[in-house]
Amino acid sequence: MPTAQILLDSxxxxxxxxxxxxxxxxxxxxxxxxxxxxDPASPLADERGFRMDVIQAMRDQGYAAVRYPGGNFLSGYNxxxxxxxxxERPRRRELAWQSTxxxxxxxxxxxxxxxxxxxxxxxxxxMGTGTIQAxxxxxxxxxxxxxxxxxxLRAKHGYPEPHNVKxxxxxxxxDGPWQIGHLDAHAYGAKALEAAKMMKxxxxxxxxxxxxxxxxxxxxxxxxxxIALEHAWxxxxxxxxxxxxxxxxxxxxxxxxxxxxxxKYVDTLEGVLRYVxxxxxxxxxxxxxxxxxxVWYKGDAVEGDWxxxxxxxxxxYNLEDALVVAQWLNVxxxxxxxxxxxCVAQIVNIISWIHTRTDGMLLQSSYYPFKLVSNNARGxxxxxLVNAPKIATKRYGDVSALDVSASHxxxxxxxxxxxxxxxxxxxxxxxxIWQDGAPALREVWxxxxxxxxEFNTWEEPNRLTAQQxxxxxxxxGKATFALPPMSFTAILTVAA
Length: 496
Ligand code: AHR
What we know:
Oligomer: single chain
Distance between the termini: 30 Å
CATH architecture of the largest domain: Alpha-Beta Barrel
Number of domains: 2
Bound molecules: alpha-L-arabinofuranose
CATH topology of the largest domain: TIM Barrel
Strand order of the largest sheet: 3-4-7-8-9-10-11-12
Number of helices: 10
Low-confidence stretches: none
Shape: globular
Structural class: alpha/beta
Strand content: 25-35%
Radius of gyration: 22 Å
CATH class of the largest domain: Alpha Beta
CATH superfamily of the largest domain: Glycosidases
């Protein structure tokens, strides 16, 4: 059996892990909001129409924040359409997804929904058709104490207390020609600066996210990021990254090495951040917000034919997709020095591992790695040494068979190691070696399979879940694991 070693030392740290790395994204697109988060027709909804089964599944996954209301939808959205008495809210032609928007669900419903989930709201302001004034007005509506027009309007709508929304995205994918009101980098950077300035004047405690490139294949990447940052640096706290991974050419070996592309993307943007900070002679830091990430290449329908809540982009997630998600989470930990926010796109139905019907919910493969990492990666990310056989890939050359991240919480002594075995054929006998003394092993969870295309169905919803497996003995600071091919393993430890 091929062998590997993973060397850990709790003092060899990368950075504290930001809890916001385990956040989500909800957009008025297809059936994410309507029939996903909110479905008054469902027996599983509460009196407000919130889908309680979805809320419980999300609580179990532990989301720190949820970004809302878009996405491309954002760039044509007038937030005033979504507040006030429901009967008076306008129905609109929604241009981004060619759908009909009823506006039954809006900002206040979202805030209430977040409180129910136990997650922080992350709102976005429209930089497409929206003005900098409307952006500032929304901050006032959400965050100001009563006594001025928009805060009083909020109170009139039934919410006298401020919502205190801390995280604000200044637009969405404004580099994309598909974006409603698309701008070039200079025009966007200048507008974003003015919007963020006004928003922070209304509430100086907020943190703002500047639109970065929509992906690393954009012809304007990474110049867009540099230019927009040069305009807005002092008034923004994060630069957004978006990326959707796929296996359109059915090259599973390369797809299972996707972390190589994810890391390269972060490394390049980290370089841009350092460059602009130096250029500006600034004391201010800007971090990365990977506020759209997911596997997306199968469910391609994205135009709704003017229907309400059309079925769009409802991906089926298989084993290989889950292993790519697990690597993404590993990258978040390994890059935690610069990555502070990450939002999976999206939380339900649209490109999501949770699918709903009126009477039930299906959890897909990749739901489980997120749940394990989100609930157990605490404290510091560790710089792990990995010695493992190489796998030859068409896209990325030779890559390690093991993709690994680890965490250690100095306050509780709890630790975790997350391992993807990318090999499609080999079990790897892997020694975990704790160089600063072995902890006790608490639990080991694993997802594995023999068919990379295996997926859960409504009829067989548990084909792919994470299972608890035997905990091996620890001796001389070492424990040995037989890691099956195409597997994700989460090893949870406590102080010895
Ligand atoms: O998440 C779906 C869409 O993907 C978002 O609306 C947009 O920002 C991205 O292109």
